[in-house]
Design a protein that fits this description.
Shape: elongated
Helix content: over 70%
Distance between the termini: 10 Å
Order of helices and strands: HHHH
Oligomer: single chain
Largest sheet: none
Number of helices: 4
Number of strands: 0
Radius of gyration: 15 Å
Length: 93
């Protein structure tokens, strides 16, 4: 399950960065919102999967409240899931 979580974390981080880039492109004079609409649903599904799996793995790996909060906040901050993977998940693998 940890390997799946690491994959979901990577994909969620990439989709977040792509969605932010699409939102910036939307604001440009020649931009439109088709990329935001295209990337929004996959990112949302990956975000929900990331949170759900993190909640499931909390008891398995006995993460304390601080560690669990950092892992959850990693999904809200750009590049956060990459940090979480390197610092908290990779040592467990």
């Amino acid at each position: 399950m940890l390997k799946s979580f690491r994959i979901i974390a990577f994909l969620e981080g990439v989709s977040y960065l792509l969605l932010m880039a699409a939102a910036l492109y939307k604001r440009m004079p020649e931009g439109n919102d088709k990329f935001v609409k295209l990337l929004g649903m996959p990112h949302g599904l990956l975000f929900v999967a990331y949170i759900a799996i993190a909640i499931f793995l909390r008891s398995t790996y006995k993460w304390d409240t601080k560690t669990f909060a950092i892992i959850l906040l990693g999904s809200l901050i750009p590049f956060g899931t990459f940090y979480v993977d390197k610092i908290y998940l990779k040592p467990l693998a």
